[in-house]
Amino acid sequence: MINRIIRLGLIFIILLLLQVLFFNNIQFSGYVNPYVYIMFILLLPVEIPAWLLLILSFLTGAVMDLFSGTLGMHASATLVAGFVRPYVLRITSPRDGYEAGANPSMLVYGLKWFLIYASLIIFIHHLVLFYIEVFRFTDFFRTLLRVILSFVFSLSFIVLLEYIRKGK
Amino acid sequence: MRNLLNFLSKYNNLLVFILLQIIAIYLLSTANDYHNTQMVKGIRRLTIGIEKRISNARTYFQLREISRLMAVENSSLRTRLERLSGETEKPFFSVTDTVFNQQYTFTHAEVINNSVNRQKNFFTIDRGRRQGMLPDMAVTEGDHIAGIIVGCSDNYSVVMSLLNLDFRVSARLRSTGYFGSMTWEGRDPYHVVLSEIPQHVTFGVGDTVETTGYSTIFPEGIIIGTVSGFEKTGGDFYRIDVAISTDFRRLRHVTVVGNLMKEEQLELENQYQ
């Protein structure tokens, strides 16, 4: 148990550093801003209590906000991601359910499952995040394009990171 | 209490979510100038919309008062117009005469009691002797005929409606100028009958019927209605159905028309009868 918490803490710090030092500096024509820190929410254990999940989501987002100077923005979006995660898990659950104490990772449930599970959450997170960022509906389709492009890149990087974790 | 606890335990995740989301939005609005401005803008737009609706509704309820004021203004303007018109036709006049060249006075009044479903209909207006009303003054609704005052108290007058079996007025077809006598036959509040129009006169459905001004009561050209049908009767006359253009069912603002030269005309006419 303690072991697990330490490992998640390590993952959190690594993702945070990656995001702040590397991904926040990717400005590809203003349309692509990958946010890989959401991976932390993806990797939390399946049977984590919903309230704890919500608080962790909020804190994750808040820490990201502190580093990017956008107080409340990431917190709000990540909170939504944390809120929908239990429902997404229920939708994507394998035929014989999740094993007790399992981590929802590609390692355990395979690439196809991980892609569906991660896509749903990342997309919802990005959707909320980018629309909160522009905070108006005048550039609706331009923002949607940013959501989709960034989503593709975030998902790719997260799957890549999962492969690195698997190889380790 | 138990219900409350049940509710809380059932929805506690949603509550945590909403609580944290409120915190996030609060942070968002206080720490980021851009988001703050956008929120204030949005709220302002919302409240402006509501305020506009409220003020619209308020104006709607004031319409009654507004229309009354406009009717009052209308009659005073028509009085002035009447004073001014005809000035050029008569080269000699006395300057001290306050009503020089003025034949008609117009006073605004409001209908306070009305009926349309009897055979002899009357309505009451809120002007009487003190406001200068006299029996035999004409009552119109704008340019449309309404009735004749038959009795006055100090502050009220009773008007014989056009919809009265005893009502008679001299009327003519605007297109040809032939005149006849107009009466109401008591069938419905929408039609009157114009008789004594000779059969050689040509006219059609839709022609305007108006007053002649021969009676000293109504001025010339007050509209009664339009021809809606006609038939030949025994003798050499038409019997013309006229659709009334005044809606007596919702008569409200009327104008009382007084003829300042009535006495003079009647006096002269009586000398030769």
Give the low-confidence spans of chain B.
Answer: none
Gross geometry of chain A:
globular
Largest two-chain interface: A-B, 20 and 20 residues
Mean pLDDT reading of chain B: 84
What general outline of chain B do the C-alpha atoms trace?
elongated
Helix/strand order of chain B, N-terminal first: HHEEEEEEEEEEEEH
Describe, in short, the structure shown.
The complex is a heterodimer of chains A (168) and B (273). With 168 residues, chain A is mainly α.
Explain this structure.
The complex is a heterodimer of chains A (168) and B (273). Chain A has 6 helices and no strands. The model of chain A has no long low-confidence stretch (mean pLDDT 87). In chain B, 34% of the residues lie in helices and 31% in strands. Chain B is built from 3 helices and 12 strands. In chain B, strand 4 and strand 5 form a beta hairpin. The radius of gyration of chain B is 31 Å and the shape is elongated. Classes of the chains: A mainly alpha (168), B alpha+beta (273). The interface between A and B is medium-sized, with 20 and 20 residues.
